Amino acid sequence: MSRRNSINTKGAFTHHGCRHTDLDQDALLSRDTALTHYAITVQWRFVWFRIIAKYWSDEDFKAKIDASMTATDNGTAMRELIKDEFDLDIGDQVVLRFYEASWVQFPEPDASDNLPDDPWGGMPPMEVKMPIPPRPEKEELHAIALATFTGSGRSYPFTCA
Predict the structure, then answer these.
(1) What is the mean predicted confidence (pLDDT) over 129-140?
(2) 20 to 30 Å CA-CA from 117: which of 57, 106, 124, 133?
(3) CA atoms within 13 A on the CB side of 144
């Protein structure tokens, strides 16, 4: 199953009161478009929770994730793991590295079975490392370079160039 078939798009391009058109939604999402990247980003939100749950419950999966911390394969194994386990192709322009924040402990409820307002308050912030392209030497090319960079699909973490 491809990533576009795992995203429920039926009706996503129609609006009540509008005429029905024969739009091939799967074909639209198969192209490298902003809509494709948005769909991947939305799907990632759900996959991320599944990764955490599986990491907590499956020792073999945990070992694969832990191995990604020191991998030197430019993220290939992690991308393949996410595609195989969760049917999400994040593209080869993303290198994901996971680590367990083992120093943070989920608190026990107090005597009244209440948790603190933010039980994960000790978690470190998410880190996103994105390369900044080099500046063209000629100033008159700056606007063109920025426009082509944005158009290349590298403006958001989950894009495919």
Answers:
(1) 84
(2) 57
(3) 6
* SS3 call for 160: coil
pLDDT in tens, 7-53: 443 443 333 444 444 545 555 445 556 667 777 778 888 898 899 99
Give the residue carrying structure tokens 């393949």.
80
Nearest to 85 by CA among 47, 49, 38, 29: 47
Least trusted range by pLDDT, from 10-14, 116-120, 132-136? 10-14
Residues 26-34: contacts with CB within 8 Å, 24+ apart? Answer: 29/3, 29/4, 30/2, 30/4, 32/153, 32/159, 32/160, 32/161
Cα separation, 106 vs 103, in Å, equals 10
Q: What is the CA radius of gyration of the chain?
A: 20
Measured CA distances, 123 to 41, 78, 134, 147 (Å): 22, 22, 33, 36
Percent share of the chain, pLDDT over 90: 16
Q: How far is the C-alpha of 102 from the C-alpha of 122, rounded, in Å?
A: 11
**144 contact partners, CB below 8 Å, separation of at least 6:** none
Q: Which two tokens stand for residue 121?
A: 């308050």
